[in-house]
Amino acid sequence: MRIATIRGRLALLGTDGPVDVAEASDGRFGPDPQSVFADWPAFREWAGTARGQVLTHTPEEVGPPVPRPPQVFAIGLNYVRHAHESGLPVPTTPLVFTKFPSAITGPSGEITLSGDTVDWEVELVVVIGREARDVDEAHAWDHVAGLTAGQDLSDRTVQNAGSPPQFSMGKSFRGFAPIGPVLVTVDEFTDPDDLRVSTVVDGVTRQDSRTSDLVFTIPQLIARLSAAVTLLPGDLIFTGTPEGVGLGMKPPVYLRAGQVLETTIEGIGTMRHTLVDRPTATDPHRP
């Protein structure tokens, strides 16, 4: 099953195209994409029989499949070769931080750069479908609604400011957590633990790896996180980025206004964003 947000409404993607869930279900499930996670098992059962009028839409009308997650977790240094390029040891326990939910944006459009050291980080994102507390690894996938693509955009200057540094602010500027273009349920993948992930900047491939290189697998992350906190339906887990980030290049290379950032995950799809500069102080349209 594949779901999306189209013109702000929940849509189910069938073989012929997307169907508006609220209309097709006669109101049993509402139009708000976020609300479906509160009744995810019932929605999955209904989706197998859903029928409705196919929606026409443009790529610009597709929003984030999870627009208002209650919690957003992120994992640092969770690929072996990314730890190596960072000059740091491979972690022995998950390095957890958060991206604030207001950073969420959709799979296309413009993203405003916060400064001149903004980096790319493609990530496979887990969407929680059932409340999870003290879940063991063997049952972790049972609590997953699906997977989507994400970028953990990072202002390296802000991220590394202070001693010791803290990550969340530098990773939570507006638009710094794009996700999409769809949410895909786990049964759609031949092997959800081995997916190709890539970042392309202005036609140049910067990251190209597979999630089989994860230090901590998705079941391990869910088990470790749920041992400490309650994972809620609709929560997101950014599972970490592979090697190839700008910070790891010599000299470092960062995103610039006018560049096009493409994020692709096998079996999910591609996001495309154009980077723009922050408005100047004299700009009358500056927020």
TrEMBL record:
Pfam families to which the protein is assigned, alphabetical: FAA_hydrolase
GO terms, molecular function: hydrolase activity; isomerase activity; metal ion binding
One biological process term in Gene Ontology: carboxylic acid metabolic process
Domain Fumarylacetoacetase-like C-terminal: 72-275
Keywords: Hydrolase, Metal-binding
Tagged with keyword Metal-binding: yes
Family: Belongs to the FAH family.
PANTHER family: FUMARYLACETOACETATE HYDROLASE DOMAIN-CONTAINING PROTEIN 2A, FUMARYLACETOACETATE HYDROLASE DOMAIN-CONTAINING PROTEIN 2A-RELATED
Protein name: Fumarylacetoacetate hydrolase family protein
Classification lineage: Bacteria, Bacillati, Actinomycetota, Actinomycetes, Nakamurellales
